[in-house]
Design goal:
The complex is a heterodimer of chains A (272) and B (337). Chain A contains 11 helices and no strands. Chain A is mostly helical. Chain A has helices at residues 4-32, 51-60, 62-93, 99-111, 114-127, 135-159, 162-170, 175-204, 207-212, 221-231, 236-269. In chain B, the strands form 4 sheets. In chain B, strands 6-7-8-3-9-10 form a 6-stranded mixed sheet, sandwiched between helices. In chain B, strands 13-17-14-15-16 form a 5-stranded antiparallel sheet, with no helix packed on it. In chain B, strands 2-1-4-5 form a 4-stranded antiparallel sheet, with helices on one face. In chain B, strand 7 (154-158), helix 5 (166-183) and strand 8 (186-191) form a beta-alpha-beta unit. The two termini of chain B are 38 Å apart. Classes of the chains: A mainly alpha (272), B alpha+beta (337). Chains A and B meet through helix 7 and helix 8 of A and strand 6 and helix 2 of B.
Chain lengths: 272, 337
């Protein structure tokens, strides 16, 4: 039991940190709503001028950038989630020769940062004539996402009672059927959490897009935002509006799935 | 229905022999209990029969068929797990029907068989619930039902009662036995609880350290244990062991270890072997009877007294042994003499 004073202190500390987390976001929002070309300082409230979003959208070509981002993110997440579930199932619940070595190989993909592989990757993809196509953004990100996803799903499948899988086997279910019909319905929080995380990382990926594509029509939203910022260094409110536009899809996906997301995060922490 | 045969079956994990040279025949329709302490290999033996563990050596037969290389689902067995292993997202009905659906049984038959099992196990009102909404006892009955509807050749049960409270356990014990007598399906039941073994099994196989120590009816195991391990494992309170020298008696088999169950150690009266004198070490008064632990020299014997006995720890009491109740074991090998 916690005393009243302890509880109050807890609220104060939590409130303080929430404030620290929220302030920059509120600042961006207020700035995005300031009068265009106005003199208000960053983060101060200056009325509701929604036209900044319209201007940024049109001047910054964000329609095209967002389209590219959606194409890349949805492809990457869909394929990576599917492959991660299957690989995680195999590593988590099946016994086969070399599984440990193979799993560490997967982990390598999780540990090596994009910066370390970007140059050779560029030459490889150029060789394959894939630079300046969506493939150059999709394929490498599927690979890194599967590394994380496999690790994530393996951890989840390891927490599933073994007897459940064995019962299904004795009941006549194949491995395939057991995965999709017995285990996956239980894994929904874990899968949704993984989906949100992968979506967020793919959406926000910057370096790969910067190096691999030069075609304006292929640029993703974060890259587009960076170019837009380069052109509008003085227009704080436009830059803020553009940032909100680019960040919004991730926020929407998060809010949409957040109840499952939180449950999934906790599922790994506390058994039972 | 079918008989089950283990022939010189072994299971090795790395350098550890979990089961060694295990040979056991279970006749058609029999209720066989595998009992032993943790790590004795009883569950491993059951899992090998289920096909969930590969066999390192030997053969297992179900009916006339050697099943070493047969996949679990082809073995026509049903298993009840210790934690029930119900599918959490499915209703009780779907849990029961799962195995039948996988086997492409016509849905009219499925319905009939599920309803029949639900009736027998009193699950009728629960068919639309999910496992999370069931009490422990109900979940346990669903797990039994899932095995029952399959109408398999062999039931395998892996400590199915160990998650129930004491009262429910006693009740379910009877229920499982009654069901098995009704359907007469060959059953292999694993437990570490010798009371379950004694009350449920047609025959009991006692395992220890990966080895089968003795197979027999409950009465055989109790009356004529093959060795010291079985003698000490079966019966509660356990058999007391001592040597003649330790208690100052001259007994027919000199040098042997003597085993005697509490009911054959009584307060002193004429006709018993004795008298022996010792100090009371503990008193377990159960109301109808009292077990008194008595230290005599190096040995500790448990004395059985009717009703409530008035002794305190440290008291000196006099008691004797019933001659027909004495069992003799080799001091070296532990085998019965």
């Amino acid at each position: 039991m916690t005393s009243r004073a302890e509880q109050s202190l807890g609220y104060v500390i939590l409130g303080l940190f929430s404030l620290i987390a929220l302030l920059p976001i509120v600042g961006i929002l207020f700035t995005a709503l300031q009068e265009p070309g106005g003199l208000a300082a960053f983060g101060t409230f200056d009325g509701l001028h929604f036209e900044n979003f319209k201007t940024a959208w049109e001047e910054g070509n964000f329609g095209s950038y967002l389209k590219s981002s959606v194409i890349v993110s949805v492809s990457v997440v869909a394929v990576a989630v599917l492959l991660s579930i299957m690989a995680g199932y195999a590593f988590g619940l099946m016994r086969f020769r070399g599984s440990t070595v193979l799993f560490y190989l997967f982990l390598l993909g999780l540990m090596v940062p994009t910066e370390a592989i970007i140059v050779p990757l560029y030459y490889d993809l150029r060789e394959l004539k894939l630079t300046n196509t969506y493939w150059a953004l999709i394929l490498p990100q599927i690979a890194t996402s599967v590394a994380f996803g496999t690790y994530w799903m393996r951890t989840y499948f390891r927490t599933v009672p073994r007897s459940l899988v064995e019962a299904a086997r004795l009941d006549g279910a194949s491995s395939w059927f057991t995965l999709w019909r017995v285990l996956l319905p239980l894994a929904r929080p874990a899968v949704l959490t993984m989906t949100v995380l992968l979506f967020m990382w793919t959406w926000n990926e910057f370096l790969l897009a910067l190096v691999m594509v030069s075609d304006e029509g292929l640029r993703t939203a974060p890259l587009g935002l960076s170019f837009f910022q380069g052109r509008n260094t003085s227009e704080l409110s436009l830059m803020a509006a553009a940032s909100v536009i680019v960040a919004l899809p991730v926020v929407i996906v998060y809010v949409f799935l957040q109840r499952h997301f939180i449950r999934g995060m906790l599922a790994g922490a506390v058994k039972g | 229905m079918a008989e089950v045969r283990f022939e010189k079956v072994g299971k090795r994990y790395g350098t550890v022999d979990a089961v060694r040279d295990f040979t056991l025949e279970i006749v058609d329709g029999e209720f066989m209990v595998l009992v032993g302490p943790s790590g004795s290999g009883k569950t491993t033996a059951l899992r090998m029969l289920a096909g969930l563990e590969a066999i390192t050596s030997g053969s297992i037969f179900i009916g006339d068929r050697e099943v070493n290389q047969v996949a679990p689902r082809e073995r026509d067995i049903a298993m009840v797990f210790q934690d029930y292993a119900l599918y959490p997202q499915m209703t009780v009905f779907d849990n029961l029907a799962f195995g039948l659906r996988r086997r492409k049984v016509p849905s009219a038959d499925i319905k009939r068989r599920v309803e029949e099992a639900a009736r027998v196990l009193d699950l009728g009102a629960l068919l639309q619930r999910r496992p999370g909404q069931l009490s422990g006892g109900q979940a346990q009955r669903v797990a039994l039902g899932r095995a029952l509807v399959r109408e398999p050749q062999v039931f395998l049960m892996d400590e199915p009662l160990s998650n129930l409270d004491a009262k429910l356990r006693t009740q379910t014990r009877g229920e499982i036995r009654r069901l098995q007598l009704q359907v007469r399906t060959t059953t292999v039941y694993v437990t570490h609880d010798q009371v379950e073994a004694m009350t449920m099994g047609d025959r009991i196989a006692v395992m220890n350290d990966g080895v089968l120590e003795q197979v027999g009816t409950p009465e055989e195991l109790y009356e004529r244990p093959a060795n010291r391990f079985v003698a000490g494992f079966i019966g509660s309170p356990a058999m007391s062991f001592f040597t003649g020298e330790e208690v100052g008696l001259t007994l027919p088999r000199n040098g042997a270890v003597v085993g005697v169950r509490p009911e054959h150690v009584r307060p002193w009266r004429e006709g018993l072997i004795g008298p022996l004198r010792g100090r009371v070490a503990f008193v377990e008064a159960l109301g109808r009877e009292t077990f008194v632990g008595v230290d005599v020299g190096e040995a500790r014997l448990v004395v059985f007294e009717e009703g409530r006995a008035a002794h305190d720890v440290g008291d000196e009491i006099e008691f004797g042994l019933v001659e027909s109740g004495l069992r003799y074991f080799s001091a070296e090998s532990g085998a019965a003499l």
